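Fresh eyes needed here. I'd like your take on this protein's tokenised backbone:
***
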Amino acid sequence: MRVRGHGILPAMLILGIETSCDETGVALYDSQAGLRAQALHSQVGMHAEYGGVVPELASRDHIRRVLPLTRQVAREAGIEMADIDAVAFTQGPGLAGALLVGASTACALAFALGVPAIGVHHLEGHLLSPLLSRDPPQFPFVALLVSGGHTQLLHARSLGHYELLGDTLDDAAGEAFDKSAKLMGLGYPGGPAIAREAARGVPGRFKLPRPLLHSGDLDFSFSGLKTAVLNQVNKAAQAAGQATSPGTAAVLDEATRADLAAEVQQAITDVLVAKSLAAMHATGARQLVIAGGVSANLMLRDKLAKASAPTRHHPGFKLFFPELSLCTDNGAMIALVGGLRLQAEPATAPHDYRPTVRPRWPLEDLMKRQAA
């Protein structure tokens, strides 16, 4: 995939490294030509056996993958390492050990090349990933970030100037998918597993809550949904004469599992769509960005596409998603943000090569730093 660059900016070649969780992503972004090359290795198969990410295994796998992937993207882009103008890496949030692998590699490469090493906020990478598309959004816009343990609504006014409109109070949408899938005996990660199962199911057989749907604010809460799924699973198991125990998934018949998955997907996407539309109304924005792993969900995309269409009573709005290959964690979004940050403040380009990471790094801290 070849995507646009930001041709009005000075020509720069940025290497991006992403190792925040269970995907090793490396990419080369050219500010003039766009994305030159990218490579991604997913650890999903390795962690599926355990029903979730095992941090130590994730870190060890990043160590094995990051340098071969770096050499691969350099070959595919037809460049020498000496051509790189900066190395961007995910500094946080994420798993501490996994982040350290990427940070250490990036800082060592930057030191050897004598170029800046730029720490990037993982969520800012997702937030701005649609800028890599052929038809990118323009500031300002509203963004729904649905990535891993994060579900947030933001008003993005310009690079680094983001107003937090709503946040998750407990479980995020991605966690609700993962936990619900585990309760139903489906695979990991939960989002794709539930989407596959839901395609065979019929919504409406089960009734699940839409948490905070009518709360009057823009916050999210999905822990109650998980509990409701657990109750439905236990009821179905008891009706089938099964004995359930804590931490053990019930063996549901195919129709029950598919119908429950369909209702889970409906409930989560209903809330995400309603809150996004409320944010658009509150800000008066005419562009909506959906980013993060859950943005790949086809039902979410379809509902928002219908909601964004103009009607006789509403002018509609423009909707932006990342390319499907850029919805999950990837090096391209990190390279992009690193380049934008460097171009915005070239005089303050960091040359501190100590590999520091921030496993817990609220996006609000990034906003405060920008405001200061």
About this structure: The mean pLDDT is 91. The two ends are 38 Å apart (CA to CA).
